[in-house]
Amino acid sequence: MTQLSALYQDVILEHNRAPRNFRRMDDADRHAEGRNPLCGDQITVWLKLDGEVISDVSFDGSGCAISKASASLMTAAVKGKTRAEVAALFGRFRELVTGETAEEARGGAGQAGGLLGDRGVSGAGQVRNAVMARAQSGAGQRS
Amino acid sequence: MPATAVAATGSPPAGTPRLDVARVRSEFPILATRVHGRPLVYLDNAATTQKPQAVIESLDRYYRAENANIHRGVHYLSQLATEAYEAAREKVARFLNAASCREVVFVRGATEGINLVAQTFARPVVRPGDEILITEMEHHSNIVPWQLLAEQTGAVLRVAPLTDAGELDFDGFERLLGERTRLVSVVHLSNALGTINPVRRITAAAHARGIPVLVDGAQSAPHLGVDMQALGCDFFVFSGHKLFGPTGIGVLYGREALLERMPPWQGGGDMISSVSFERSTWAGLPAKFEAGTPHIAGAIGLGTAIDWLSAVGLDAVAAHEDELLSYATAAVGRIPGVTLIGTAREKASILSFSLGGIHPHDIGQVLDLEGIAIRAGHHCAQPVMQRFGVAATARASFALYNTAAEVDALVAGLGTVRRVFAQ
User: Fold this and answer.
1) Of A136, B178, B283, B372, which is most buried by a Cβ count within 10 Å?
2) How confident is the model at residue B15 (pLDDT cuts 50, 70, 90)?
3) Domain A2-137 belongs to what topology?
4) A64 and B391: CB-CB below 8 Å?
């Protein structure tokens, strides 16, 4: 179970089982839909802005455990942050999933890297692929 | 294989030779691979099959000893390569029971074959409002070329419905055969559902109205008999790599009378009779459709794969695979939470399923860590997924080298999946 538990960490399984902020938001200020044509994953993210601050965020859709858990963690990470803070977080996350090694990730990416930073190299590669595919397909539009 | 499984599903017909699976397996070097420390269990044969030593050696031999361009040199190697390439065409013609080699066109694969027919058979004759009839179980490769044609010509794509078991609703299909139908294009063996379509019945119904039929044989060619005279179709396409041959080579079979009146597919060398700046004339069949230097090694490798498969014996292969599919259907179907997608009476080689609310990618990922290769996704058949209300399925697909022990490994792996994702 070593490789298995490296990939499917408890945090992923737990967020997959009980995703945070997993709901539609009818009065959202912004929403974006991401689809991955390779695997058919589809996720919609909604958010509400209070000035510069993301006061609420939610998502729904279907995807594998890793994509669902990462969306869940993402909503938890950005809620209450300013747009600038989220942009910086997004930049670091993007760097993490597209460029750095797992070793570098452990040092640098902080909260956003929580998913990747604690796992073995093989797991990181797989998660990186999954997240990257989603990030590429879901570089969202605004409503 | 447990005796009960055989008894429950019926034994192969008397007289069918049994497949020596251990010997077959020993001819596939890649099957000795270990994945994550486990023996490889390769159950993704509908995506592509592995290659026997004979095919690998024929590619090696061609590049070591026979490589030259074909149809142009007087020199020794060119003649050798030309003979080998044309011998491969003869093997394909025999395999398909085509009337002649003139009916066998080498293409890149089934996809290119369908596109060729769409653009050179259909496009010149289709008028706005004319119809192309397909079924709801088609692979994207038998949907999108017709949509491109529809955009170019104003033709309309009609789609025959499926039953809940994943069988063609034949009455629904017949109702859609009409005055405006210019071509019927149907899959022989569905890659997403495993359904075998009643191609002879389809062909008879279409021909009764003077409508030609294309059959997508990408999945059927390695598993079922594909006798053109028996099927009665007008076009048939398949891919070499799903038939134990190389990638990048495939076949379009077409009735000579139809191919004759079709314009060329691409222009270039090898497809002409004469060229001047004012006018060029086309070569005869099948060269008219083979512009440029073809995948010579691929065609030769495909010929070897056909020889190899024929020597093993398609009857024995079909009997072995049917037994395996029945065993797998029963064993996987017993797992709590499993829903089989595609339960047609006539099926071959493919087991598509969902498991509770577990995403198929997670199933595939966990199985991979056990060394088991399956496909997870929409299988390039998104309309099929929509029809059955799922975003994706997990799919195990079998070939002649798979064993009941591998099915047992799959079942055990699915047990691990259920434990990891216990909800």
Assistant:
1) B372
2) low
3) Sufe protein. Chain: A (3.90.1010)
4) no
